[in-house]
Design brief:
Bound molecules: pyridoxine-5'-phosphate
Number of strands: 8
CATH architecture: Alpha-Beta Barrel
Number of helices: 11
Largest sheet: 8 strands, parallel, barrel
Structural class: alpha/beta
Distance between the termini: 7 Å
CATH class: Alpha Beta
CATH superfamily: Aldolase class I
CATH topology: TIM Barrel
Helix content: 40-55%
Number of domains: 1
């Protein structure tokens, strides 16, 4: 029996709340239910435009949560200050464009090397684990290691798109497998996320070097039908089969 971790991303509970300008559903309530249902951590992405999670959600969730809180954030000074103030257990640095529907690709580490390095250093001083959200390729894994990251989170979006459309996905799978194995071999903890469903997660879980999955949109969508607790339990079974 493996012990792979499931990070539950609750951003889209806030999306539903914000769609009507209401105070429900409360992301904190979702975080606590996820915690009681076997989630290993809770992930939230505080976007620059605050389209889902807001500053006050971060504050309330951090105060009440007993399992680790993973804050996804863009590499900006504003977000660094927020992270230092709120002290999440983990930070995952992600690229961000205002106009994108979701996080469309991995970080461009080469272009933002010094800023990313500086952010990692400052977070490490506060004992915050830092991961970098990257495209699955060996070059970006190497750059993540040089920048001082503890972990890489491999963007599974390309694989999932091909998988969902029944298109050829062997190359996308190999990219994930090779970069995951390489990252592990140089001492990085390997995570995966983006666009994952039950079926694509089952496929990717064949890669033993991946130890953590961060899943959001599908979990919240599936919860409409079977509830958050049952969805989380199903995912925990899939990743630890
Ligand atoms: N991991 C990272 C770094 C993300 O930015 C996101 C959301 O875009 C996810 C995981 C979760 O993706 P999804 O909501 O598609 O499951």
């Amino acid at each position: 029996m493996t012990n792979r971790r499931l990070g539950v991303n609750i951003d889209h509970v806030a999306t539903i709340r914000n769609a009507r300008g209401e105070i429900y559903p409360d992301p904190l309530k979702a975080a606590l239910i996820a915690q009681n249902s076997g989630a290993d951590s809770i992930t939230i992405h505080l976007r620059e435009d605050r389209r889902h999670i807001r500053d006050n959600d971060l504050k309330r969730i951090k105060k009440k949560l007993k399992i680790p809180l993973n804050l996804e954030m863009a590499p900006t000074n504003e977000m660094l200050e927020i992270a230092i103030r709120n002290k999440p257990n983990f930070v995952c640095i992600v690229p961000e464009k205002r106009t994108e529907i979701t996080t469309e690709g991995g970080l461009n580490i080469k272009k933002n090397k010094s800023l990313i390095k500086k952010i990692i250093n400052k977070l490490h001083k506060r004992k915050i684990r830092v991961s970098l959200f990257i495209e699955p390729n060996v070059e970006d894994v190497k750059l993540s290691r040089f920048a001082g990251a503890d972990c890489v989170e491999l963007h599974t979006g390309n694989f999932c798109n091909l998988f969902n459309k029944n298109k050829k996905k062997n190359k996308a799978f190999l990219n994930l497998e090779n970069s995951a194995n390489y990252a592990k071999s140089i001492g990085l903890d390997v995570h995966a996320g983006h666009g994952l469903t039950y079926k694509s997660t089952l496929e990717i879980s064949k890669i033993n070097s991946i130890t953590e999955y961060n899943i959001g949109h599908f979990i919240i969508a599936e919860s409409i039908f079977i509830g958050l607790k049952n969805t989380i339990k199903k995912f925990k079974k899939i990743i630890n089969r």
